Amino acid sequence: MLAKAIILIGGPQKGTRFRPLSMELAKPLFPLAGVPMLQHHIDACKKVPNIRQIFLMGFYDESEFATFMTQCISPDEGIQISYLRETQALGTGGGLMRYRDIILEGQPDILFVLHGDVCSSFPLNDMLAEHQKRAVTDHFTLMATQVERERAHLYGCVVENPETGEVLHYAEKPQTFVSDLISCGVFIFTPKLFDHINALSGPPALDLDCVDDEEADPRNSHNVSLERDVLVQLSGSGKLFVYKTLDFWTAVKTSGSALHANRCYLSFVRKSNPERLVAAKPAGSGFPTIVGDVIIDPTATVDPTCKLGPNVTIGPGAKIGAGVRIVDSIVLDQVEVKPHACIIHAVIGWQSIVGAWSRVEGVPGLPGTGNQYVNGQKNNGVTILGKGVEVAAEIIVRNCIVLPHKSLTSNQRNEILL
Ligand code: GTP
After folding, report:
1. pTM
2. Index of the ligand 1 atom closest to the CA of residue 27
């Protein structure tokens, strides 16, 4: 059985809620637990023996992903990775249609489709086993998870037949409560998916035989939503089933939501690759004091008098001075944290400087949101410093989003600093 995976990564116009962090780096490459977000998807795909080819599909410039693509899979793993670029946003299903012929080369039996902005342990082997156990053919499976009732309307809601696991009803971000079972943005399709997309009504018609003129090819411009168009239509047809994961799942939408995702992946690393975490060290041992899950890049320098954790990642080339305390935060590449500064529930952007005795602090947001706004003002969220922000000594920055290259010389609270 041959399987391929397609990871939908969107494009520059999509990750706007991830500003200011997406101003420097495409959101799918933002580091979570010390590696690009997409690396977690790819590592999960590598564990499925049948996946020999992975496609990244999006409308970012290909060059933004070139380095990542050469590093994310080593040549001896024998898995091919390629980028399929949409010239414009074609929706979560339009790009699949646009590149149908390439995807179907070699006649794969199974197509895994993964949203690039979700975080999970991606139990793809388990999901495939359950998919294959069903006594039907040409069916599809979506991964689902239970969320709090109040947050369900933010996602694609699924009503299942509890006896058969069949999806009876699918509603994308419904206005009223439908179900607390939601789609995780992880799917198993077969090549039959293309027949379903092809059968969708509405202009322009998808005439897939008309491919001689690239521009005239309707596949190049037809926007299809897998969720709103295909899943809605498939529900109740006996062809779409649920695979429920009890493991963690979250979506990365706002920049603040990166912190919750980082926490999830750090605790996953504790189970899957504990050697990547810094071993806990007691105070006075000549090493920084480490509490809980912490990853420090080997090129970072951390003073032995620091206390880090839980849930902290320190990026390449960062310098953390004496007596610094960091809790539940992402410190990105080449950041300098001067002595005795304190960072709690914050993302510190590339090359930023946090002055001595300063305090950069947020409060943890809801999973998947991370920042809240009241009357257009940011309130009660993770503090985010964009790239190259300078916080002067003895300053308190609380619940703020700070755009790149700002210098803060006075205390700030609940502000978006442009
Ligand atoms: P939002 O709340 O608006 O973000 O909607 P959503 O949570 O339903 O997410 P959305 O459907 O916009 O995106 C799901 C995944 O598909 C994300 O990883 C996107 O980057 C990706 N995606 C969205 N639109 C496109 C598209 O036009 N082309 C490609 N290739 N990927 C896309």
Report:
1. 0.92
2. 20
